[in-house]
Amino acid sequence: MKITKIELENYKGTKKLSHELFGRTVVCGKNATGKTTLMDAFFDIITGKLSDGTTPDAIRPHDATGKDIDRVAIKRSITIDGDELTKVTEQKWRKPRGQVDEVLDGNVTTYQINGFDKKKKDFDDRLSEIADPDTLLLCSNAKVFTSKLRKSTAEARKYIESISGFSVDKFIQDHDEYKDVLAITDGNPVEDVVKKLKKELSLEKKEGEKISNNLQYVSERVFPFDTTENQKKISDAEQLLATVERQKIVRADAATERTISAEKINELYTEKNGLEEMLKAVLNKAKGEYNKSMAESLENAMSGQQKAEKAQHDVSLCKGRISDLYTMAVDANESYKKAIASIAEYEKKISDIEAEKYSGKDTCPTCGQKLPKDKIDSAIAKFEENKKALADIYRNTIVERKADAEALDKKRHEYKLAWEQAKKDLIPLEKALEEAKSDVSNYDVNYPEFDDSEIKNSDEYKEGEAKISEVLAKIADLKTKISAELPAVDIALEKSAKESLESAKKEYAVWVETVKANEAEVESLTKKMREQGQKIADIEQKITLIQNFSIEKNKEIEKIVNGFFKKVSFKFFDTTYEGNVYETLRIMVNGTDYMNGLNHGDRILADIDLVTGFQKMNGLNIPVWVDDVESLDADRIPKIDQQLIMLRVTEDKELVIKEV
Fold first, then answer.
1. Which pLDDT value is given to residue 144?
2. Which residues, 6+ apart, have CB-to-CB distance to 488 below 8 Å?
3. CA gap 403, 343 in Å, rounded
4. Whether the Cβ atoms of residue 611 and residue 1 lie closer than 8 Å to each other
5. Beta bridge partners of residue 109, listed in sequence order
6. Residue 262: predicted pLDDT
7. CA–CA distance from 417 to each of 330, 409, 561 (Å)?
8. Which of 172, 282, 425, 483 has the smallest number of Cβ neighbours within 10 A?
């Protein structure tokens, strides 16, 4: 597209103008001579907006007092590629009923192509054959894009990406590792998502630390309980109850003896049966002693059985402890090995980092010239700084891993020593068990019925028969015994023993349940710790994935976009001091930010490169308008394929348009 002629009539401060334009045209004159008016008219016709992107609301000429000049038609016309495009704006007046003077009722704009009236749609369709109005505006004047960038970096990025041909879907299709990124970001900026994830990560780490501390507390919690003392309490209580039972038997026996004595007295008084009753008493006495002996044997056997059961219980507890200590020692040893392996891995990473050399280029990717030494030194220093920062992170990790390894090493040795001591403790317990079993086997609880034949044939029995007469003398003694109180039974002792037995058994049951509950809590917290660790790992993986995606995606966009420009380059991402990636859009000119620090001359050259680059991206070739070219030496103005129209402030009092 090329403008060959421009005509103005009553447009802003220009009363009438008609002039040809050339491939390289310079428009000269003092300020307020109409240079910018020409550019505004061009953009008014092809985009419906002025060169600064505003609507053409103040294009009517003014008189010397600054008041609008009414009832004159405003005409602007350009000839492009052989077609004359014209817009004429006139005021619409009407006379209200009952009034003498007309009142302004707005403006009406008519459209012409090659002198023929056209509808606005037909006029716009002719322009749309070139491009849409916004694109034409953007590709003719760099200020349009830089204003958009200042207003909204996100909108400027969106526009560049849309015309670059870059497709995020295609990028993800080519990089399968980023297939989940869009679901994670959900249309939000990368830096906002990373910030949100890091906040989540911090909270999850705090929760993990809380669980870890709780697990350590629960794992190390001790429930002091002397099982030996508890079993002794149970045994003592049972023995006391046995004593009371024996008291009951003695009382019963005493009552029986009283009855027998009464019968003996009666029998002694009966001469006929006296002798028989005396002999019976002797036999009963012998039989009682026999039964007492057997009862003591039975009692000893029962006591030995209790000792054997206690010894068996102690052996079982000791074996359980040996098994638990062995498992804990093996687990601690495995954790220790993993910690040592992790230290070696991080030491290798540090070695690799320290061995890495700077491989950056020392030439400018745009102009090919060698970069200044201070920029190369700055790049090398930044590279070394990043190396040191990453190595320091790994060194701190190694310090933490070594502390973990020392603690694990200490713990596995403690478990091993405890395991070996438990095995030693088992030996005397097993020996005691065997001795208790042997003692039990020495007692026979099945004894025969009493045999009185030997008693009857004994001298003692015969002597008893001779002393029947002496029994009569003992009748008085027997009466005395009958009148005596029966042996007492200690009811209070029985109650106390039962309470003690019940209490000891409850204490043991409570301790067992407490230990089981603690073990269950340790297991539950361990599971939570694993789940929390997985949560943390998942968030860290998402952060790494998103940041890597952002870097690779923006590098790809930079590669595509910067290929359309010669002097300027676009930077689509940067990193914070903490190393976080964030998306941006900066225009760089030989390492200098377009928005900060660029001199006026270089800014003009950058503006030319911007609009020509945008035209390449949109497949256009339309006139490029450049203002303030007096800031540039003539030899610095580049040769471009597009028509170049330059506005220059000179001492000319009238507008001068010429070919250069």
1. 86
2. 247, 251
3. 11
4. no
5. 89
6. 62
7. 13, 12, 69
8. 483
633-644 pLDDT, tens digit per residue, is 888 889 999 999
* pLDDT for 264 beyond 80: no
Tell me what pLDDT residue 2 has: 92
- Of 590, 606, 630, the position where a domain reaches its end is 590
Write out the DSSP string of 307-354.
HHHHHHHHHHHHHHHHHHHHHHHHHHHHHHHHHHHHHHHHHHHHHHHH
Mean pLDDT of the chain: 85
Written as one string, the DSSP assignment of 371-407 is PPHHHHHHHHHHHHHHHHHHHHHHHHHHHHHHHHHHH
Are the beta carbons of 636 and 601 closer than 8 angstroms? Answer: yes
Q: pLDDT grade, residue 271 (50/70/90)? A: very low
The predicted model gives 176-189 an average pLDDT of 89
What CATH number is attached to the domain comprising 50? Answer: 3.40.50
644 within domain boundaries: yes
Instruction: Report the number of distinct structural domains present in the chain.
Output: 3
216: in domain: yes
Last residue within a domain, chosen from 451, 474, 489: 489
Beta carbons of 142 and 51 less than 8 angstroms apart: no
Give pLDDT tens digits for 452-481: 777 777 776 677 666 666 666 666 676 676
Distance CA 525, CA 536 (A): 16
Contact 345, 390 (CB under 8 A): no
Q: Please tell me whether residues 214 and 246 are part of one structural domain.
A: no
**Distance spanning both ends of the chain, measured CA to CA:** 19
Contact 482, 261 (CB under 8 A): yes
* DSSP bridge partners of 645: 25, 625
pTM value > 0.85:
no
Name the residue range of residue 632's domain: 3-140+620-659
Q: Which of 357, 396, 362 is nearest to 376 (CA)?
A: 362
428: amino acid identity, one letter: P
